[in-house]
Structure formats: C-alpha cells, structure tokens
Amino acid sequence: MSVASKARGSVAALQALTHFATHPREMVHFATHRREMMDVYHEYPEKFVYEFPVVDFRELLEPEQRRSSLQLDFEPDLYGDVSWQELVVLSSLVAHYKPKRLFEIGTFMGKTTMHLAANSPPDAKVYTLDLPQENFEEIKKNLATYDESLVVDGRKPVGFHYRRSPWANKIEQLFANSMAFDESKYAGQMDFVFVDADHYYPSVVNDTRKAMAMLSRKPGSMVLWHDLGPKTDVERGIIDVVGKQGVFKIKNTKLGICRV
Ligand SMILES: C[S@@+](CC[C@H](N)C(=O)[O-])C[C@H]1O[C@@H](n2cnc3c(N)ncnc32)[C@H](O)[C@@H]1O
Asked: Which residue CA neighbors atom 1 of ligand 1 most closely?
C-alpha cells in the first residue's frame, strides 16, 4: 500500500471517529449494521491489500480433475458462519484432495463441519473443537477474549447442523479451550485443518501453531484459516507462525490457505 493511500485511510478513519463522536445515532446505526458492512467486504475483498498473494481457488485444483460433485446445504447465514462461497471452496478442496483426517478449530453451529464430513471420503474422520458448553458463562469469564456477537441472534447449540445430518457418524466433537487443548495426540495426523475459533492475536498464534503441529505433511495436506482480512490479527498471527512463504489468500473469500 502506498504512503499516500495509507495516509488517506488514516484521515478517513479519523474523520469517521470525529463524525461518530458528534452523531451518536449514526454510531448506533453503524454498530447494528456492521454485518451488512461485512457483506460488502465478502463481495469485494479484493479492494483490500493483503500480505499474501491472492489465488483463485480453481488454480489450487489439478486441471484434469476440476470437475467434482459436491454435497452442499445452503442454510441462511448467521453472524459467525462462513459464506456460501466459502462453503463451495472448502467443500471443493475436500472433494478434490480427499483428506482422511480433518480437524476444525471452532465448530460453532457445525455448518462447515457438516460440509467437511459430507465431501470427504466415506472412511474419513472429522474432529471439531469448541469451548465446553456446561457452565459456559463461567468459562467465558476466564477467557482473555470472546466475541459476544457469536452468542446472540438465535445461535443454535454447538454442532447443530451436522448432528441432524447423515454424516454425523463421521464427526467427533471435542470440547476444550483451544488455548489449553493438547494437540500432541493428533500430531502429524491431519490432512486438512480449518482454523476458525477466536480471532484475537494470541488465540490465532496458539491455534495456528497447533494446526501446523497436527498437519500430516502428506502431499495435498493443508491448513485453512477463516476471517483473514488485511491488517487483522489473523493475518499477523499467520505471518508470525508460518511466515509468508506458501500462504495464499483465496480470491472472493476471507480464507487463507497453506499447502504442503
Ligand atoms: C466463527 S465461529 C466458527 C464457525 C464455524 N467454523 C463454521 O464455519 O460454521 C467461532 C467458534 O469458535 C469458538 N471458540 C471461540 N474461542 C474458542 C476457544 N478459545 N477454544 C475453542 N473454541 C473457541 C466459539 O465458541 C465459536 O463457536
């Protein structure tokens, strides 16, 4: 990014802050419509400048094998879900590379979990990790950060989507704080890891380290991250753990990918 455009960005941010300070109603509007603003970001992410090269996901597939049948279930999106475009990308990568062991950090309502299970080989196994749900309020109090928006808006129980799907038997739900989770049992075993839990820097670093430790390093194995935005903790965390070499931002999504 040029110095001029950085300066323009800072001036715009300062103007917005000054404006909101004197127009509290508009501040409320901004807060309540941030999801629509995120949609703009979903639709036009290439307007932003990333630290990683941007790749069209079709370039990640072998040319002679770009045709695949996918199992897709387009539930309406809630805050915290991946977009339908991201579901297509994740499902396509799974259908294409046929990972046998998959691990997701951050289950939420299990929409992605279900797609990982639905599109992987019949004998594949999907592990998915989320915070323990018993005494959740107490657990939250002990977390350094938690995105409260995830627990509003009619959130259904953890794993809701996959639990009522035909692929539930391929999935093992794990409950732990990823910061305390001992990944050594799974070290070097996972062909596909999806990192999508807490997006603050210490969590991203922790989850990324554990994802890399669990990765099998077989040809075709990969780690993906969600909510990769420019100048975010996710971007910074990936760079600090993995570096920039071999990491890409997938076009028209907020997904990052590192392949072996
Ligand atoms: C953005 S949602 C995940 C969305 C999901 N991967 C999907 O594609 O539908 C983040 C999830 O991570 C969980 N989470 C947040 N902090 C966590 C932590 N420290 N350990 C484990 N899970 C965490 C939240 O409870 C939430 O369910």
From this structure: 80
Atom number, ligand 1, closest to the C-alpha of residue 130: 22
Ligand 1 pocket, 173 CB below 6 A?
A: no
In whole angstroms, what is the distance from residue 211 CA to residue 190 CA? Answer: 9
pLDDT, tens digit, for every residue of 114-152? Answer: 999 999 999 999 999 999 989 888 888 888 888 888 877
Q: Strand, helix or coil at 117?
A: helix
Contacts (Cβ under 8 Å, ≥6 apart) of 210 = 105, 178, 181, 183
> For domain 51-259, which CATH number applies: 3.40.50.150, 1.20.810.10, 3.40.50.300, 3.40.50.1980?
3.40.50.150
CA 178 to centroid of ligand 1, rounded, Å: 9
What are the pLDDT digits (tens) for 17-61?
Answer: 665 566 555 555 455 545 544 554 555 556 678 899 999 999 999
pTM of the model as a whole: 0.85
